Amino acid sequence: MTTAMLAAPLTSAKDLTQALGTDGYVVASAETVAQITKLNVADLQDLSRFWEGLPRDPYLKDGGRYRSRRHASYEIKNQQLNLVPHRAHWQSVNYNALHGGIERWFEPVQEQLLKHPAWQALLLGLGQALSSLKPVSTWFVEAHQFRIDTTDGIGRPTPEGAHRDGVDFVAVFLLDRVGIKGGETRIFDASGSAGLRFTLSQPWSLLLMNDERMIHESTPIQPLGNYGYRDTLVLTYRSSGFQDSPQRSQQ
Fold it and tell me: Which residues does 70 contact at the CB level (< 8 Å), separation at least 6?
């Protein structure tokens, strides 16, 4: 038995920034991602091995064990990508009613991945594409590696529900879907009721959104057999500094 999935309308590399500016979102194939970041698809696929063995997210308020992740933060200035000292991920309750208002210290991205040329080219290339739409002096970037699995029978990619992230742009890359159903992406216009639903299925395909205009969520996943998982990379780009707790701590 196969599970039907709704395909997303794809945008080409040459139309990507214009469509993002007009519609507030684009969906791009892995080939388009490679084109805008000056990489090969094989370069992107080589990064996927770093999603094995991600540490469990210890902050899930529903007590679940279904999410594993790592986190890193960067500044992009003068077309240079600079890793900043490891910091907490923080969102206000205005953007994350479930996990907002607390500092979440996730394990850092592995050094081998941080130094990978394709990883650096991906973050920098996407930042350059966004700068052609919104010129800024510095992009403040957060990178999140996610694995959502069915250890608990069901996995929730967005336990906080439909939301915005409080940044300028959000990029969601689908790396892999293994032995699951569900995981449908849903996006909505923040100023109205218009929406779109689809399932990202191609490894390294991309949903790129203007976070000020779009609300997004992903539906829960369930296993087709005994176990399954969904791997994603989420990159956020913000022009007005990192989101930090008013009582920011250092680790």
Answer: 54, 55, 106, 107, 108, 109, 110, 144, 145
pLDDT in tens, 185-217: 999 998 877 789 999 999 999 999 999 999 999
Please enumerate in sequence order all residues whose Cβ is within 8 A of that of 53, keeping only pairs 6 or more positions apart, or say none.
none
The CATH class of 22-238 is mainly beta
- Residue 10 to residue 14: CA distance in whole angstroms: 12
Q: Is the pLDDT of residue 243 over 90?
A: no
φ/ψ of 212, rounded to 5, equals -75, -20
Q: How far from chain centre, in Å, is Cα 149?
A: 16
| Domain residue ranges of the chain, discontinuous segments joined by + | 22-238
pLDDT value for 1: 37
